[in-house]
Design a protein that fits this description.
Forms a complex composed of PxpA, PxpB and PxpC. The protein is built from eight helices and eleven strands. By secondary structure, the protein is α/β, with parallel strands linked by helices.
Length: 250
């Protein structure tokens, strides 16, 4: 059993990056942009309504305040400010999730914030404090062994291990930065093979050939990966055909 998540709602006004409606026919969890790296009220409302109709779990994808850089530029944000901004984003999405008949079920940082919280204990603790400020004990989706998961566990929040279908890994199990070669997998067959290996608990290889085991309850396929909707359909169909159940973790 494994969850399949994707980043959705990554648009702004008339500009749309992800094919949300198509992805929602295949994924089991939707990481919805909350307005800081992408997303706006109309987009958030639409995605929440479609997610509920499709039986997909809604998660808040929180970010640094970086619309121009799509949340992929690292920033030095004071801990108190970051906690408040995380709580603000969760609260904004919660309004639309509840209006659609559901609720925000989990939290996942986006982009630079996600990567920063792998090793930066201070920023990780601020994200967790933001989740607590938002008034709940929401599960935290993130990289196994990260500072984010350590902070969440210390605060009594459930942690959910995530692995990536379409990103390159370093030998230490962290993600290859997008500015370096091997950061993105673009061969559909490699991506499908990676999904099977993770779902079965088998080894995958880092960019240098190092074997890795990626314990994961959730698989991420980026919504802006070329052909993401078609890939998601293949992943769902082929994993299901191999007796792997796709089910939301929250």
């Amino acid at each position: 059993m494994i969850d399949l998540n994707a980043d959705l709602g990554e648009g702004f006004g008339r500009w749309q990056l992800t094919d949300d409606d198509a992805l929602l026919t295949s994924v089991t969890s939707a990481n919805v942009a909350c307005g800081f790296h992408a997303g706006d009220p109309v987009t958030m409302r639409h995605v929440c309504e479609r997610a509920v109709a499709a039986g997909v779990s809604i998660g808040a994808q929180v970010s640094y305040r970086d619309l121009a850089g799509f949340g992929r530029r690292s920033m030095d944000v004071p801990a108190a400010d970051l906690a408040a901004e995380v709580a603000y984003q969760i609260g904004a999405l919660e309004i639309f999730a509840r209006a659609a008949g559901s609720a925000v079920r989990y939290v996942k940082p986006h982009g630079a914030l996600y990567n920063r919280c792998v090793r930066d204990a201070g920023q990780a603790a601020a994200v967790v404090e933001g989740i607590r400020l938002a008034g709940g004990t929401l599960p935290v989706l993130g990289l196994p062994g990260s500072e984010l998961h350590s902070a969440a566990a210390a605060a009594g929040l459930p942690v959910v291990n995530e692995a990536f279908a379409d990103r390159g890994y370093r030998p230490d199990g962290t993600l290859v930065p997008r500015t370096e070669p091997g950061a993105l997998l673009d061969d559909p067959e490699r991506i499908i093979a990676r999904c099977f290996a993770i779902a079965r608990g088998e080894e995958v290889t880092a960019v240098d050939g190092t074997p890795l085991r990626l314990p994961a309850r959730s698989l991420c396929l980026h919504g802006d990966t070329p052909g993401a909707a078609q890939l998601a359909r293949r992943i769902r169909a082929e994993l299901g055909g191999a007796d792997v159940t796709l089910k939301a973790f929250a």
